[in-house]
Design a protein that fits this description.
The protein is of the alpha+beta class. The protein has a single domain, classed as Nucleoside Triphosphate Pyrophosphohydrolase. The protein is 32% helix and 42% strand. Strands 1, 2, 3, 4, 5, 6 and 7 form a seven-stranded mixed sheet that branches. Helix 3 packs antiparallel against helix 4. The protein is globular and about 55 Å long.
Length: 151
Amino acid sequence: MEIVHYHAAGGIVFDGDRVLLLRKPALGEIVLPKGHIEDGETPERAALRETMEETGYRNLRVVADLGTQQAQYVRDGKQYVRDETYFLMALADHQRSESGDHDDAEHDRATFKRLWIPVDEAAAMMTFEPARSFVKRAVEIYHEDTKARRS
């Protein structure tokens, strides 16, 4: 079986006590914004770009690097090995761009529906385990930060 290895990066966006997830109605999946890291692009830059493209939100700030984890799956007779890097992001404001300012803008609008979910419910909603683990890690950081600010 042919093995295809690639790198992807994405973001877990917080706005107060809510987390942004993406629903893919056609597949019945709940996912995080992510995509391929382009040649010459850092994981952080790719995560910001992909998150902006798939959510439409323009003013995102990286808060923490959540690390990298490997996901594997088989599709169309090929074994895919994907190294996924995620970043915890904060939404600076709700300004969004609905215009087609990237190649896949129309596809992204048709594919993804934004869901703002309470922090403590987000991980359980994820369709795939790698994303669930990253959301749990992001929520832990959120709670640590919230606790530190109250002290």
